[in-house]
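Here we describe the complex-level prediction in full. Unlike the single-chain runs in Section 2.1, the two entities below were treated as one system.
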Amino acid sequence: MMTYRSAKSWTKFWFRADTDHWLTVLRIGIGVQIIIYCFSLRTAWFSLFGSYGSGLVGRELSEVAISSESPFIPRLSWFVQIGTHLGMGESNILWFVWMLLVVAALLLVIGLFSRTAAIVVWFLHLCAIKSGALLTYGMDNFVTIGSFYLMLAPLPDSYSFDHRFRKRPLKLPEIQGFVRRILQLHLCIAYFFGGFAKACGPGWWNGDSVWRSLTHPPFDVIPPEVLMRFKSSFPAAGIAVCLLELGYAVFIWPRKTRLAWLSGILAMHVAIGLTMGMYQFSLILIILNLAAFGPGCDLAANIFHGARTQSPDYVPVTEQQAKASRIT
Amino acid sequence: MTRRWPYITAACVHLTFVLCAGSCDLLTAFSKGSTFFPKSWSGLFGRTEKSIEYALGKGSRRLWSDGIALYLHGAGVEAGYNFFAPHVPGSYRLVLELHYGDGRVEYEIAQGNAPGSALPVASLLDLIGHFSNDAVREHLIRLLAQDTGRQHPNVEMVRAFFGAVNFPTVEAYAGGAKASFRVIRSYDFRPVGK
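The structure predicted for the assembly as a whole is:
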């Protein structure tokens, strides 16, 4: 009996019925992120992904590096080889990939052919960052994570063109909850590791790491003379970052602390974007946090009370309603 | 309910990969020292990291390890989350001394020639700084120097200075100290075709 109850609770934890608001946030957010990524690299696209002799360091070097891990990891050279067989030049192929990525991202934003667009965005973005593996940083990883979850998510969502005009049925609310749960747990793991690593270094407790982050080229957006006026706040800022990240996995779940913790994390990422110029990095993490724990997220009722919530955000969806939405 | 267990199992496997990748990164950082942990623990961190990497199939070339690597890269979970942790690493800079045929000498800092390439080049320079193999380092610096050489067709020779930028602490900066550039290696290159 205890084993059966445990199994039932465990299944309920994973397959909690949820709305699809989070999926709308993730879909539009990833689409916007990819569009910004493409346009920010528009003039550098060929330089970053061109072949040896025409690119910055040649994409072949990055592709040799990733081939040492697996020859099956996607890369832009696959497109170049196919295009060369069809008589296309390398620059035309690379620009074709760029345009395809932009079009797929636009389709994601409006929610048309959502699943196909999500797969195309994930694949092309992955090809680009793997062919430029020597030139990527943390932002690219998080975009891959977001687009991976989007590709597997129960699309379309209720605000998409696919559902509203093409009348594509929505998926079961329990599946919505399941995929969102994985994203939530992933973020908890990511912030815990980030916070733990920071907390184990003395620099984040005495403010030295905050100073070094803000003066570290090319993130030195604010002149050091201006930063000096706020030097007394560096230790507090460093400790706040450690506590926010370390405490994320614990305090993001209860309703009483969720808003404060989420607001703190979002504020931290906004500050990173403004003070270090890492606006794309900040944007993707804001998107992932809002999708995972943003509006419509009602965790406490199901984890701590085990009952349906009275929150106005929660939309109780019965199995009959879910089946009816699938038929229409 | 039984139909949901394959999904839960897949989710647990996925999150285990996330945990393993994050742990590898963490243990790598801890094994290098400069943390609150005793230095004598560095060996333990290193051995644990190697065990996790072995479990993930890194370093071996079998179909299952290729498959795991493909999944890790595809899901974006091949790397950890130690951004600027446990401490902010030093930054590197590549200064290029451009020698022209008429005797002119100009200086440029390698940061990519197109807008939007500053951050990728900075990531590359960080990577170069961590390479212990001098041949690989020289090859990458040569490629960056050649890219700059292409923008300056009359350049006869490029001398590349790769070094670390040392920014003073808050107290030292308040006392008037400035950033310094320490050259690690220098190389002479001739543009291709010259």
